[in-house]
Design goal:
With 185 residues, this protein is an alpha/beta fold. The chain has a single domain, classed as Spore Coat Polysaccharide Biosynthesis Protein SpsA, Chain A, CATH 3.90.550. The protein is built from 7 helices and 6 strands, in the order H-E-H-E-H-E-H-E-E-H-H-E-H. It has a 4-stranded mixed beta sheet with strand order 3-5-4-6, sandwiched between helices. Strands 1-2 form a two-stranded parallel sheet. Helix 1 packs across helix 4. The longest helix has 19 residues.
Length: 185
């Protein structure tokens, strides 16, 4: 399941990256360096957009997202968008829309049906105004994630754009609709 979802996510993001002319980075967890190179090579051969690979370091979800944003802005990027690999309904248009919203907003969130979010995008200016406040002390994987994030964004003076709501696969019950869809293909 994870392999198929990751494959879908990377190829969907690759199509968006190619149309937008942006860089695509896969930050993987749970693999060693050799396994990442092997798996990344398999992905790269089937991609139209270049794919950079890196290993995620530990910590909770907030720490890992914060670290990726920190690294991206340190490399000089002006806008960054993060997504997970548990989005069976992800479409390249979602990512194109996220970058379009970042032209007018400091922060973009994709609300998840469970009260979290499936995408976060932020501008360099929004990053400097909010910093770690968007990621510290959040009860990750709870129904409070989105509302707390929106509250913290408002307190930091960030403008926020919202994408469509969709379901990510945090629990086994979330797999049911996706498995039915996959079976019918």
């Amino acid at each position: 399941m994870q392999r198929r979802l990751s494959w879908h996510t990377v190829h969907t993001a690759g199509a968006a990256a190619q149309s937008l002319g942006v860089e695509l980075l896969l930050a993987a967890a749970g693999l060693g360096p050799r396994a990442l190179r092997r798996w990344g090579g398999q992905l790269q051969r089937s991609m139209v957009a270049p794919l950079r690979l890196t290993l995620q370091r530990g910590g909770n979800l907030g720490c890992r997202m914060h670290r990726q944003l920190q690294l991206g802005f340190a490399q000089g990027f002006e806008q960054l968008v993060l997504i997970g690999s548990d989005l069976p309904d992800l479409q390249s248009g979602d990512l194109v829309q996220a970058f379009a919203l970042l032209e007018r907003h400091d922060l973009v969130l994709g609300p998840a049906e469970d009260g979290g979010y499936w995408l976060i995008g932020i501008t360099r200016q929004g990053w400097w105004r909010s910093g770690a406040t968007l990621f510290s002390g959040i009860p990750w994987s709870s129904d409070q994630v989105l509302s707390l994030s929106l509250d913290r964004a408002a307190k930091s003076g960030l403008t926020v754009g919202l994408l469509r709501q969709q379901s990510d696969l945090d629990r086994r019950s979330g797999l049911e609709p996706w498995l039915l869809l996959e079976r019918d293909r």
